[in-house]
Amino acid sequence: MSNPKFKYAPISVFLFPFYNLACGILLCTDGDDSLYPIAVLIDELRNEDVQLRLNSIKKLSTIALALGVERTRTELLPFLTDTIYDEDEVLLALAEQLGNFTMLVGGPEYVHCLLPPLESLATVEETVVRDKAVESLRKISQEHSPVDLEVHFEPLVKRLASGDWFTSRTSACGLFSVCYPRVSSTVKAEIRQHFRTLCSDDTPMVRRAAASKLGEFAKVLELDYVKSDIISLFTALASDEQDSVRLLAVEACVSIATLLPQEDLETLVMPTLRQAAEDKSWRVRYMVADKFSELQKAVGPEITKNDLVPAFQNLLKDCEAEVRAAAANKVKEFCENLPEDSRETIIMTHILPCVKELVSDTNQHVKSALASVIMGLSTILGKDNTVEHLLPLFLAQLKDECPEVRLNIISNLDCVNEVIGIRQLSQSLLPAIVELAEDAKWRVRLAIIEYMPLLAGQLGVEFFDEKLNTLCMAWLIDHVYAIREAATCNLMKLVEKFGAEWAQNTIVPKVLGMANDPNYLHRMTTLFCINSLSEACGQEITTKQMLPVVLKMSNDQVANVRFNVAKSLQKIGPVLDSSALQTEVKPVLEKLATDTDMDVKYFAQEAISGEFSSINVLTE
Amino acid sequence: MSIIATATEKVDGFTRKSMRKAQKQKKSQGSSQFRTQALTELSPLPQLKDAPSTEQQELFSQKLQQCCMLFDFMDSVTDLKSKEIKRATLNELVDYVSTNRGVLVETAYPEISNMICTNIFRTLPPSDNPDFDPEEDEPTLEASWPHIQLVYEFLLRFLENPDFQPSIAKRYIDQKFVLQLLELFDSEDPRERDFLKTVLHRIYGKFLGLRAFIRKQINNIFLRFIYETDHFNGVAELLEILGSIINGFALPLKAEHKQFLMKVLVPMHTAKGLALFHAQLAYCVVQFLEKDPILTEPVIRGLLKFWPKTCSQKEVMYLGEIEEILDVIEPTQFKKIQEPLFKQISRCVANPHFQVAERALYFWNNEYILSLIEENIDKVLPIMFGSLYRISKEHWNPTIVALVYNVLKTLMEMNSTLFDELTASYKSDRQRVEVEASCYGDASLRQDLGNWSGLGEG
Fold this sequence. Notes:
A: mainly alpha; B: mainly alpha; PP2A_B56 (chain B)
């Protein structure tokens, strides 16, 4: 402990037995203390405390940098490979680190040194660790030269693919696609064979992993092999006995269909897709519904017209609500992507009747999924159709018993506004808004408040004053703080929209009136409103109307109000001119700074130092 | 399974209560059957017992076919007559196979199997409550239970019939049958899982050729549960069956079985819903250890690796399981594991959650554990001493302090010389660290002091 710099840091070095690596560092660097912290880090890789091991692993690149490329390769990596039995948290950090280690082992030439520890990590049970190891392996595969890829990387993939325990085989599934494009044709054939084997593995976990990588693997294969190999695997996985495997094949279907020429789709893909859309498991049908837009794009307009339209109708009428909801979510996208020449006819004759039924579905999730997209149809169908066919549906949904459905309609009003103008809806809109504004659940109230500025913009100031202003003011005295807070913020946005003059006539008097409310929470709301309104209202209104009220409130009997006065004064300070600050604000703050209440004093002092320190400089 | 991310939750975090209320009104749900057949009204057939024996077989087969008709139980007003006919027929069939001899002729097997498969094998519907918490929420019951129950009943009577011939039945009760049966264990309806448990147990008993397959598929379900979905309703039931399967394992244990213990049962302790099946799980583990004591060390090391870090409720369960294991441990195995184990126990004893501390301290009420500790007092006492000594002075809960005093007394009686030495060195160490900390005023040393007082917490 000769060097005072390290007086305490290396305690653990002395408490725990050295092992050769740390020891080696110390021996070879005697006289050079700069590696001392590194020795500690290395030592902590074996500490009993997980947190210390974890910290140390996270600094692994520092250790490697200090050791140099050669010792990293010959000592650090073998050591890490040995200690793979550890807490999953440590392993996860290790797996991540090793993905960025290429330069630290000496560049692409030596990158294969990283394979042994990552190989072990790719076989552990914990999914997150394994996935991270695979991610790192995929990353460093790019840094391998084609030769190294065949000599080092591909054998690793093969070992994993034929491992005893399912974990290594699942990991292998993610590695085929990264090495396939860069190896010789013999090796390619082997890789295809391994992938085939894993697709029919008897462990469902492995089949799931293979199915989820099928699309990705298909993308790197030559088209002939896609047709000969991938299609048969796809068909087999899509009729697997486990629905968890079958549903993953649906995902692959998108990539595969994109790769194939149009004329092959009918024979190679469609039979499987049709079968999936009518699968006996709702999970598979749900997946089809969920991927419907992607599928639609992948198979092209002709097949869409002939096959997907009826399939979509069936999904919208499915016996499971989850499936219907997933399909309802896709209504707009599906209609948008229909071929233009027949779009309107298809929508009017095939889709709209199903949509009409969904409006009165028994399940609220289905209805609310529909409500979130249905407004989008108006832009596709144009004004007349919207008025005739969609408007009744919007109106029905605005009266839905479930608040979420109404909210979803209101939140998408802008789409309709562009097509037919919002006034068409105002008769039904208003009762819906009022009801939501008074909903028993505060989060519903909160959600509708957030749409107020948008609605105000679309409905115009007159309509607003007449119908909605009272609501906005009522929220200010809501019994939930979050609503009062949102209401003040809403007022600010309204003022930004309608201007200071409007504010002066409609809101400011009411807000200031609350300063005399017997309830101190309402009095505080006045202050909060002033905080957010002052800037939008400008100097004149703030100085002439708001400031006197704030100053008067400094005599409030409730301390919370008083210290909020101090906070408000600080907040509106920048809007006021300096003479008002000096003559009116400063004395009040100084008085508050001598208040009996500790918090009032504190915030008054805060305000003084926050506001006047800079101003003093200016005036002096 | 939260497939629809309920937008209601985005809007209001407090809707769950109201959703639950709604749930209580509507607790049952239909099975997700993709109906293709058109419903035709059933007409009653004559009673089997009234038919002449020459026609009984034919009538039996007709009745089986009649029972293949499925009904929508979510709609409680339609097909009432047909539903009643099917119910009565199923009852009659149950009665027929359980009381009569010689009815299970070879030609009946495919029809029986067909009737059973059509009725019970179905994709389970999505859960009504996406964040179904089995400990808190009422399960959703199967709407068509009035029929399904009788089909299960029939299946059991069929399997238990003295004339039942596995050699014929294995053509129908095959791997695919078992696979579908196992998937049904995810049913939210506890009544159904209970039937399934008995059925699977009978099948495992009667079909030797399916045993390995059943074990392997259970293995897969568990792995999926642990590493992929974290959700499966029938874990407890499957473990219960496994308990009796493990009981019958021949010695020496096959590698496959050991792997199952280490790679499935031990990691299963990490599951979120451990409380739902811990009793069954611990039973399986102890069964294994009783079969092959050599496995004790790796199992305990596994439990220590997965020891809960923040969930006190789970920690109490782990401690319970450790005690069950210690109850059957061999002294030689105890020696191998005592150090890491007692380091953990010492941490538990010092746990501020009194139930954890209390559960750990109860070990000292166990005669067998006491004898093991006494034999190894020179190893155990130094590990436990710091925690116990400190807790006796500091724990907030008087019950714990009282228990600790008793434990300290017991330990002192086991080896008073060692106890005195430890007391002396504990005090002097503490003093030394305090002095050093005050001299240097250094953070790292104060940290060190902290570690001292939390001895064993590192």
